[in-house]
Design brief:
Blueprint lengths: L2 E3 L6 E3 L4 E5 L11 H9 L7 E7 L7 E7 L5 E6 L7 H10 L10
Antiparallel strand pairs: 1-2, 3-4, 4-5, 5-6
Length: 109
């Protein structure tokens, strides 16, 4: 069972109390974007086998959105953090790198 700590209210919630929101840290395109860029934003998502950043809502709790970094293979959770950030916090990136040497995601090292 997947258990995530809501960074907003501090409660450890299991997956039955949470609502998934898809991939986190999407780069949105503006109205001047090409059709291909808009299609990429709407439909093309990363679906890695391994470390993944996701959006979650504490539906049966405080109701707020947050982000989680976890492994899709093992359900190992590296941490959760506020949804109001554009990139994962450094402590989350360090936790992933410590457990997965050589790991890289997009422009984050």
């Amino acid at each position: 069972m997947l258990i995530l700590r809501c960074p907003n209210c501090g409660i450890d919630a299991d997956e039955t109390e949470l609502a998934p929101g898809g991939e986190a840290h999407l780069r949105r395109v503006g109205p001047e974007a090409s059709d291909d860029a808009f299609e990429g934003y709407l439909f093309h998502r990363e679906n890695p086998r391994g470390v993944h950043f996701e959006r979650w809502r504490h539906a049966a709790g405080c109701g707020k959105w947050f982000h989680a970094a976890r492994c899709t293979q093992t359900l190992e959770v590296f941490g959760t953090y506020s949804a109001q950030v554009t990139d994962p916090p450094q402590d989350i990136r360090d936790a992933i790198t410590a457990r997965r040497p050589g790991w890289r995601w997009r422009d984050i090292e």
